[in-house]
Write a structure and sequence with these properties.
The complex is a heterodimer of chains A (about 325) and B (about 250). Chain A has about 325 residues and is mostly helical. The C terminus of chain A is likely disordered. Chain A has a two-stranded antiparallel sheet. Chain A has a domain of about 210 residues. In chain A, helix 2 packs across helix 12, helix 3 packs parallel to helix 5 and helix 7 packs antiparallel against helix 10. In chain A, about 75% of the residues lie in helices and about 0% in strands. Chain B is α/β, with parallel strands linked by helices and about 250 residues long. Chain B has 2 domains: about 170 residues, Rossmann fold, CATH 3.40.50.300; about 70 residues, no CATH class. The mean pLDDT of chain B is about 90. Chain B starts with a strand and ends with a helix. Chain B is about 40% helix and about 25% strand. In chain B, a hairpin with a 2-residue loop joins strand 9 and strand 10. Chain B is globular and about 60 Å long. Chain B is built from 10 helices and 10 strands. The chains are: A mainly alpha (about 325), B alpha/beta (about 250). At the A-B interface, helix 8 and helix 9 of A face helix 2 and helix 3 of B.
């Protein structure tokens, strides 16, 4: 246990050096992996810790991206303000959605969030005047040498990742974390023991939404072009679930480990066997579910696999 | 006379045409142990669930220390100082014994903010219910007797003024029953008011100061254990009218 701070410090130094050691392609790839680590960690808060399968989390990513794009192009705000705006919009929408959807449990919650994300995509698609509709929207790009641009976004995502890991680490041992775990285990008993389940579920989902929205904001500025099919792509959520599955749901570092494994494999496979990409990915998923249902981290510590989450969806209860 | 801590007025709960609890009035005095008995399906657990808010009342009102609590959410009622155990125990899987009980200290009446402090308080409660040494055990590995005591420990960690116990002795062996009986009496001496549902007749007669009898959702008797034991309505509810008449003619 004493070694873990050392390992973390070592990793931090290593990651801080990446932009200066690797080529632009690899820096962009690691940035991308950081982004998926953030998204999966955010999903992990509501799904892994709290037991609610939020299949519609892309709604916050898309909203974050679009808020940033609109604020930067229409209102001509600088990026930091647009990012703050994106965070605020994600939070407000999450509270409103949470008040309605978090009354649902199991399949119903998962489906309703999926519906909410799809509805939001349609709204954005049709608000042509504001969002450019299906044509997408082009943001003013960050100007500078490619090295500087790459490094900026690399560190933005890294900081975001460190922040959410800190939140997840606190949740693994603080009062709020206990409440979420109790809700996941048995919501009725949690209420009887004095836990305001509605409030904590909303707090949990909004933490998730905040980081997802901010990641969407950084993504929009980074890629400087967004359109509804990309930023509301439900396949991304599926990917996040697979990442959590590989790493271990309800653990602090599982999503990061999962993201690195999945994205590295995905990149290697995708660049070489374009036709086999999905097939190989599918095989990996099946192997993980069969032989490592609680994720990699369950091999070293206490974890909870997506299998349990899915089982709890099936039974409509939040118990293992 | 001591003060009334909990009272129900005409409380009813219907499920479709079934009157699970029908127009029951009851009062619990501060500092007493009130037993609730009745045949299977009499409405005992339903009554308890209405008190702690897990079931909404169809009709009637419940007051705790003068405040109307019917209609409040379970967590609000828990915060006021009422905690309960479940007949079918509901431990939090995926958490240790210590974590399970800590939840009570963190979110019950005391609302301890600090998780470490809550764990310390939890240790003393675990030794009270004889679960010391099992702190770091996963709850999945507990046997039924331990699970029942875990359920009790979680309720106690909330530091309740009023404790609602739903068959905490079911499935226990005689020495374990004796242990729980002594524990309940001790908790009562510490000043906690206790409402207890129990099928083990010897146990409930031994610990209750007063007993309330439910049958088909209605209150059919109320009194001290001796009065209840001799009440013909109670005997006929449990053993049938014929036995009751037979007994009456022999007396």
């Amino acid at each position: 246990m004493k070694r873990s701070p050392l390992i973390l410090a070592g990793l931090l130094v290593l990651f801080a050096l990446v932009p200066f050691l690797l080529s632009g392609f690899w820096v962009r790839l690691v940035t991308y992996i950081f982004m998926f680590s953030v998204l999966a960690s955010a999903l992990n808060i509501i799904t892994g810790f709290t037991g609610y399968a939020a299949f519609g989390n892309m709604v916050f990513f898309g909203l974050g991206a679009y808020t940033t794009a609109v604020l930067m192009t229409k209102a001509r705000l600088p990026f930091p303000l647009a990012l703050a705006g994106a965070a605020a919009v994600a939070l407000v929408v999450c509270v409103l959605l949470g008040l309605i959807l978090l009354r649902l449990k199991g399949h119903y919650f998962a489906l309703a969030t999926l519906g909410a994300a799809e509805a939001m995509r349609q709204v954005v698609d049709n608000l042509t005047g504001l969002t450019g509709g299906g044509q997408g929207i082009t943001l003013p790009p960050l100007r500078g040498k490619p090295f500087l641009v790459n490094t900026t976004f690399y560190f933005l995502m890294l900081v975001l990742l460190i922040l959410i890991l800190f939140v997840a680490w606190r949740l693994s041992k603080n009062r709020l974390g206990y409440a979420l775990k109790a809700i996941r285990a048995n919501e009725e008993a949690a209420g009887v023991m004095g836990i305001d389940t509605t409030r904590y579920k909303i707090v949990s989902w909004c933490l998730s939404a905040l980081f997802t929205g901010v990641a969407g904001s950084v993504y929009a500025y980074w890629f400087s072009y967004i359109d509804p099919p990309t930023v509301f792509d439900v396949m991304w959520v599926v990917k996040m679930f697979v990442i959590i599955l590989i790493g271990g749901a309800g653990t602090v570092f599982g999503p990061v480990i999962g993201a690195f494994i999945l994205e590295t494999i995905s990149e290697l496979v995708w660049s070489r066997f374009i036709n086999l990409h999905l097939g190989i990915l599918g095989t990996i998923i099946i192997l993980v579910v069969l032989f490592m249902p609680n994720g990699l981290l369950s091999l070293v510590g206490q974890g909870r696999g997506l299998k349990d989450v899915l089982r709890s969806i099936r039974t409509g209860e939040n118990r293992i | 006379m001591s003060a009334i801590i909990l009272s129900g007025r005409g409380i009813s709960k219907t499920f479709g045409a079934l009157r699970a609890v029908w127009k029951v009035d009851f009062e619990v005095k501060q500092g007493e142990i009130l037993g609730i008995i009745g045949p299977n399906g009499a409405g005992k657990t339903t009554l308890l669930s209405m008190v702690n808010g897990t079931l909404a009342l169809t009709r009637g009102e419940i007051f705790f220390k003068g405040q109307r609590i019917s209609g409040l959410k379970p967590f609000r009622i828990a915060e006021l100082g009422i905690s309960r155990t479940f007949q079918i125990v509901k431990p939090f899987p995926g958490m240790t014994v210590l974590e399970n009980v800590s939840i009570g200290a963190l979110f019950g009446k005391d609302k301890i903010r600090d998780a470490r402090q809550a764990r310390e308080k939890t240790r003393s409660i675990l030794s009270k219910v004889n679960l010391q040494g099992r702190e770091d055990e996963a709850v999945e590995n507990l046997n039924i007797s331990e699970r029942k005591r875990l359920e009790l420990a979680r309720a106690l960690a909330m530091d309740p003024e009023l404790l609602l116990l739903d068959e905490v002795m079911a499935g226990l062996n005689p020495s374990e029953i004796q242990f729980v009986m002594d524990l309940i009496k001790q908790l009562n001496r510490e000043g906690r008011t206790i409402l207890v549902i129990e099928h083990v007749m010897k146990a409930i007669m031994g610990i209750s100061q007063r007993i309330l009898v439910l049958h088909h959702g209605e209150k059919i008797a109320e009194g001290n254990p001796a009065e209840i034991r001799d009440n013909p309505d109670v005997i006929s509810a449990y053993l049938g009218q014929r036995y009751s008449r037979m007994r009456g003619s022999h007396a």
